[in-house]
Amino acid sequence: MITAGILICGAGVVGLTVARDLVKAGYGDILVIDKEPEVGRHASGRTSGVLHAGIYYAPGSLRAESCLKGNFRMKEYCEERGLPLLKTGKVIVARDESELPTLRELYSRATQNGAKVELIDDKQLAEIEPNAKSAGQALFSHYTAVVDPKAIIKSFQKELEDSGKVRFRFDTRFMGLGKSQGKGLVVKTTNGDISCGFFLNASGAYGDVVAHAFGLGQDYQLIPFKGIYKKLKKHKAHTIRGSIYPVPNIKNPFLGVHFTRGAHGDVYLGPTAIPALGRENYGLISGIDSEAPAILLRDALLFLRNPKFRGVALEEPRKYFFKHFFNDARKLVKELAPEDIESSPKAGIRPQLVDIKKNELVMDFIIEGTDESVHVLNSISPAFTSSLFFSEMLFTRYVEPRLAKL
After folding, report:
1. Fewest beta carbons less than 10 Å away: which of 2, 171, 221, 381?
2. Residues ≥6 apart with Cβ < 8 Å to 184
3. Number of C-beta neighbours around residue 129 at 10 A
């Protein structure tokens, strides 16, 4: 049987950043497992790379607390290691006058959260993003930036391996708990049993499945939403300097189709937020598995009982069709033609946590634990942005106090 002092399930950004904090605090004998053959195969490696700046999140929430501080730390990390970083800022544009009150609410939230933002008119907007258009007012976020998520994830991995205190075991899927002989836990995996003193669940899209095996998170289940992207053709990429976002419906956790200049110069349009039929349903059919009927049932219950979800479920699937995707995008800019856009293989899954008792989408990070484990649920956006601060908070408030008692 394999043994480890601390076992981390999930080699995405949350698992890796918590491992860094454990190493900094002097802990060793850390084992990170992942069912994939490499780090960051799913959400962490598929994110748009935008470092958010604390604009959207309700003041006082964990997302608000961690976003801006995480933004600053991630920028610093990239600068120290020479990783790609674009400090382009972002504009959020009101597409019509009915969105102006929400735009001002975003300004208020951002200000309370410590973000540097400005309400700007069309003349100022033209100086920042010449191709963006608005209904007379937009919000400019100074601190928003763009990074290369895969480069950061690989850097974290190398740093951990070089420490000599962290091992990785890939192609190793969590299967449940075994019977422990005395203190500690026995975790069953597809690659053999693992005995550990402490367990951290950083399993992303499978966070609820792992938590349920510990008797936790019983009121929650994850449902997947698919984000598909398209690209501006290279000769049109110059028309977008940074990021252009619409005013979102702040009652939902989705930001709408937007333009983002990536860390390597490509300009992406997207993502959608289409209800998916699998936690890895990146393609039209690929990734649909035996869980699809259960996901359909959860979607159906939400559709019947939650008007906000019903609106998303009715609107978003239309964006599979180019016409509707294009119509969403062109509302944000002065010039855009159908022939300016090309397809992209880029796609992601947002594993959205649902409170199944209240039939509500959960809008904040959720953390639960036992004496020997901590479980991160709903690690949705801005989880990547927040990670370097969120992991420290997680370690200080939840992990270290438990380790001290073992």
Report:
1. 171
2. 195, 196, 197, 372
3. 27
- Among all chains, which residue has been given the structure tokens 């984000």? 227
pLDDT in tens, 287-324: 999 999 999 999 999 999 998 889 888 888 888 889 99
Supply 170's token pair. 């890939």
Whether 241 and 294 have beta carbons less than 8 Å apart is answered as no
Closest Cα to residue 316, out of 339, 342, 350?
350
